[in-house]
């Protein structure tokens, strides 16, 4: 989820990323909800949110797809730079993402090994994805390298599932990298088609992926694979224990994390590519709509928003403000959107103010 520059020539990507951010807010707020309404309209709302939660993998897949897509556009814009200089720049930013992911894991779960190093969170997944994808993009045969990267990742995902194995950093933990890295590679391949053929190239990817979506829908296999990690019991968030706000329990707690299954990854590619197609096709018109301005801002400053919303949810959790039912969950989502849009607007203007001060 690397930051986007303030001015972009492809605002459709910002809109897609912004949409993924709002859906992420919804997923995380839903997970904070403490209880369900007993009956009536509120119960219907709770059931609807529970049903929508099945699509949570679309959010992660979108972030990774856009990350790979954006890398190719960044390489285009950085054409005067050598391939080595471009890759070093990407690797440096990936290092910062990994460091931030580690700190966020520390605040939530503590110091439990190996997850804190190998599988700290979605930012660590993106760090791995952009590094490997950038290496393929600057290679002598990028199309072949990107295809091989996606195929290897999907092959390892299938093999681990077939053997019933869970490996921290690969498919298990809060930052399991596979099969999500494959979406970054396919996103980069799609961007290369976009530069060569325009939106028709992206639409072609969505069309080719559509049979996989239909097949995945027809299968009984779950689109999400669930893996359990065991951590020390901090009596809540680890940071609350570190601050002396909670007392640690005597034992351990189990946390269940998801990753797209092999079938889920096959099924997710078409809707992710189709969303990108539609938003790129209408981007010049949609970018001027005032109602979509929040999505643009959230998409442009997704990394800042990601960290900020986790901090806000952490404060709400420490204060005991868990939503009791779906209506309060939606209110929490609205508050996150409003606060993070305001934060993004400040970030949007900050470069202007910095230049004026010089």
How would you summarize this macromolecular structure in one to three sentences?
With 358 residues, the protein is mostly helical. It has helices at 11-32, 40-52, 56-77, 83-108, 115-118, 122-137, 142-163, 180-197, 199-218, 238-242, 262-281, 283-286, 293-300, 302-318, 326-357, and strands spanning 224-232, 252-260. The protein is built from 15 helices and two strands.
Written overview of the protein:
The chain has a two-stranded antiparallel sheet. By secondary structure, the protein is mainly alpha-helical. Helices cover about 70% and strands about 5% of the residues. It is globular, with a radius of gyration of 20 Å. Helix 1 runs antiparallel to helix 3, helix 1 runs parallel beside helix 14 and helix 1 packs across helix 15. It has one domain (about 10-355). Residues about 1-5 and about 355-358 have low confidence and may be disordered. About 40% of the residues are buried.
């Amino acid at each position: 989820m690397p930051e986007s520059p303030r001015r972009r020539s492809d605002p459709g990507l910002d809109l897609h990323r912004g949409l993924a951010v709002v859906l992420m807010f919804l997923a995380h707020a839903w997970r904070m909800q403490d209880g369900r309404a007993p009956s009536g309209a509120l119960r219907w709302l709770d059931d609807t949110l529970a049903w929508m939660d099945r699509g949570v993998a679309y959010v992660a897949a979108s972030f990774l797809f856009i990350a790979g897509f954006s890398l190719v556009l960044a390489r285009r814009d950085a054409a005067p730079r050598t391939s080595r200089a471009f890759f070093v720049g990407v690797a440096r930013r990936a290092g910062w993402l990994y460091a931030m992911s580690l700190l966020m894991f520390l605040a939530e779960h503590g110091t439990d090994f190996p997850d804190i190093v190998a599988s700290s969170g979605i930012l660590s997944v993106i760090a791995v994805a952009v590094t490997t994808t950038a290496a393929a993009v600057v290679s002598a045969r990028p199309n072949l390298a990107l295809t091989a990267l996606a195929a290897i990742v999907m092959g390892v995902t299938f093999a681990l599932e077939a053997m019933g194995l869970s490996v921290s950093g690969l498919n298990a933990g809060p930052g399991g990298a596979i099969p999500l890295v494959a979406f970054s590679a396919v996103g980069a391949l799609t961007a290369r088609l976009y530069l060569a053929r325009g939106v028709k190239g992206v639409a072609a990817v969505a069309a080719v992926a559509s049979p996989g979506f239909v097949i995945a829908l027809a299968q009984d296999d779950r689109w999400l694979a669930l893996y359990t990690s065991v951590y020390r019991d901090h009596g809540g968030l680890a940071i609350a224990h570190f601050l002396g706000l909670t007392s640690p329990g005597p034992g351990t707690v189990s946390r269940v994390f998801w990753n797209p299954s092999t079938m889920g990854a096959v099924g997710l590619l078409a809707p992710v590519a189709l969303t990108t197609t539609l938003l790129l096709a209408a981007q010049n018109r949609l970018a001027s709509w005032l109602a979509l301005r929040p999505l643009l801002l959230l998409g442009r400053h997704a990394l800042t928003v990601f960290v900020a919303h986790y901090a806000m949810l952490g404060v709400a959790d420490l204060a005991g403000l868990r939503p009791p039912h779906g209506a309060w969950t939606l209110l929490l989502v609205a508050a996150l959107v409003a606060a993070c849009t305001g934060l993004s607007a400040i970030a949007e203007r900050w470069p202007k103010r910095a230049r004026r001060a010089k």
